[in-house]
Design goal:
Number of domains: 1
Distance between the termini: 82 Å
Strand order of the largest sheet: 1-2-3
Largest sheet: 3 strands, antiparallel
Helix content: 40-55%
Number of helices: 3
Strand content: 5-15%
Shape: rod-shaped
Radius of gyration: 31 Å
Structural class: mainly alpha
């Protein structure tokens, strides 16, 4: 191998290694694109999480209402009777009253048809402000 061919090989290697790297502008553009995609995705993820929590609370309310009706029929309770969480616990899987999804508190109510169970929210969810009520009619 001659000296000139060795020098040409080195120049070629240097040039090809320089071309293989990303420029600062290319990296900045890639970071901006990732940032824009994140700005679009995060609000949608929060919306889906809120919807999931809201639907879980509604499912708990339906289960509480069913357990309350079953308890009333099984023990032949009057419409004015109001079951406790301990009274209803045996009607749930694992013998436990449903746990809160987001820190909400459940109001069981008495056994009349008008007194459906409700949940008081600790924070804003969907269109319901903190301290607001989620009911089965909210569907």
């Amino acid at each position: 191998m001659t000296i000139s061919s060795t020098m040409n090989t080195r120049k070629h290697l240097r040039r090809s290694s320089l071309r293989a790297a990303f420029t600062l502008v290319e990296v900045m553009i890639a970071v901006m694109i990732v940032g824009l995609l994140t700005m679009i995705a995060v609000p949608n993820v929060r919306k889906f999480m809120d919807t999931g929590k809201y639907n879980a609370v509604l499912a708990n309310l339906k289960a509480i209402e069913l357990a309350k009706t079953t308890w009333q029929n099984e023990y032949r309770k009057a419409d004015t009777a109001e079951p406790s969480t301990d009274d209803l616990a045996p009607y749930f899987q694992g013998g436990k009253f449903p746990s809160s999804v987001m820190g909400e508190t459940y109001n069981i109510g008495n056994c009349t048809d008008a007194a459906r169970p409700t949940a008081t929210t600790p924070s804003k969810i969907r269109n319901i402000e903190a301290g607001g009520q989620i009911t089965l009619e909210d569907k």
